[in-house]
Structures are given as C-alpha cells and as structure tokens.
Amino acid sequence: MASDHLADFFNYLSIEKGLASNTISAYRLDIEKFFHYLSTNQLSLENVTPEQLSSYVAWLRGMENREFKIGESSIARNIISIRSYFTYLAKEHKFNNPSSNFKPPKIGKRLPKALTIDQVMSMLNIAGTDLISSRDKALVELLYATGARVSELINLNTLDISTADTQAGTTTTVKLKGKGGKERVVPIGSFAVAAVNDYLVRSRPTLLKVSTQKALFLNQRGGRLSRQSAWNLVAKAAERAGLSDQVTPHSMRHSFATHLLDGGADIRVVQELLGHSSVTTTQIYTLITIDHLRESYANAHPRSKF
C-alpha cells in the first residue's frame, strides 16, 4: 500500500531534499489530515482521482469539518504536501499520480508586521536584573540583531558565536543554520554582544546542569530552550513594554529586515542576512518601505494627493 511508504517519504524529505524538521512535521500533519479524509469516506489512496482531490479541498473548507477546518494558506500548504507525496510515489514506486494538475489556491501577499524602532527599543530597554531576565534580554537582542528565525536561535550552541580581530576592528559573528541545513554568518553589534556576554557570565553557568551541554540558551532545568518558551518570553517582553499588538519572534525578524532597508541597506545584503534563497522573498519587505515613503510623502508634501 502507498501508506507503507510514508516512512521512506519522510526520510526522502530529510535526506534528499534537506527539509527542516519543522517543515517535515508540517508535511506529516497535512498527510495525516488527508488520510483521515480518505478513511472517513472509505477511499483508497491507490485509486484517488483528481475529482476526489478537489472534493478534499472542499471538505477542508467546509463548515461541517470543524475538527480540521483551516485557512487558505494552510490549505495551499496541505495541497503542496499531498502533491509532493504523490510525486514521490509516482517516481519511486510507479504509482499513478492524480495530483499533476492539483494547484494550491493563490494567496495574496500579506505584508509582514514590523515594529517601529521605538517599539523595539522599549522591549530591549525594559528588562529585569535577575538571571532569567538576563537570558531573555540576550535572546531578544539576538533576534533583532540577526533577523534569525526562532528555530535557528534556539538551536545555537555556545561555539556558534565567535569574535575575530580584523582591519576594521573586533567583529563578533553568529553562525546560523537555516532551512535545508544552509549555514550563514551574521555580524552582531555591541548591544547584542554585551547582552550575550552578560548572560554567559551571570546566567548560563547557574542554569547549566551538565557540563557537556552545548546549547547557548538554556531553560531552568538546564536543557535547551524550547521554541514555545522563546515565543512566550518575546510576548512577555512586549507586554512589559506596553505593546498592545501580538509580538512574536518573527516580528523581530520582520523588524530587522524592514529597518535595514529603511536605513539604506542593499536588498542583496538583506537577502543574505535573512538566509533567503531567492531575492524575490526578500522583496516583500521593500513594499513596506515603499508604503512608509508614500505615507511620509503624503504627510509632508503640500501637493501630495494621490
């Protein structure tokens, strides 16, 4: 049966395609939803038709499907996951592929929400002096200093931060491992360096339970800080700063990119710093900058009516 090849498929995604574990987990959940649909409707995976795939999308959108009801962007990803699985089965195991013309819905580009510089500063400047606050400040500083994804930051080890003397002076860098295992090196400024050093000197030795622990950011049990904990501490930092909108680690990444472009950074440099494989992905941030310019122009120019 085609379902017997699932383990091989996920190994293929990890080893051959080099997808991140979070992405593979999303694929797994998508395919589980599809199998649930097939089971509920007594359908066989081996005999799925294009019409049944269309019915599946309608099922996802349907109000009667309250347990699994999801938005359009999730539906689009779901379709991509299923299409990838059928493509794999057709290529590796000679199965019929009913998904050749199975297209995900077009999702309009949503501009990422960026904080203002003052809002970021308020998050960074309002912090306690206890050991956990020292860790949290270091993490938020690094998020904004590097534009890292939260998964990249929590997977950092102490040896991923290094300092070197160059002709321009002393430079501290962070080695991040992005999607597909691709590594990039991002420089960080003195504020982030100071926050990280304070955490390494004051907090991490106290949190450390096992001397062989390599993780940079530790929880109170001495293990690697989790993704959810990182989200929670960013949200709490925003709450302490009096920010009403939801703030996530990704908000810091958006702010990093937007503020760089607003400050005149070259889009190719921002692409490299963010770890985007294509500059097209980075260009969405230029739309924010254009909107900002348009707003400033409209407010300042006496004949700015559009």
From TrEMBL:
A Pfam family annotated for this UniProt entry: Phage_int_SAM_1
Segments passing through the bilayer: none
Principal subcellular localization: cytoplasm
Subcellular location: Cytoplasm
Assembly and interaction partners: Forms a cyclic heterotetrameric complex composed of two molecules of XerC and two molecules of XerD.
Purpose of the protein: Site-specific tyrosine recombinase, which acts by catalyzing the cutting and rejoining of the recombining DNA molecules. The XerC-XerD complex is essential to convert dimers of the bacterial chromosome into monomers to permit their segregation at cell division. It also contributes to the segregational stability of plasmids.
Protein name: Tyrosine recombinase XerC
Originating species: Candidatus Nanopelagicus abundans
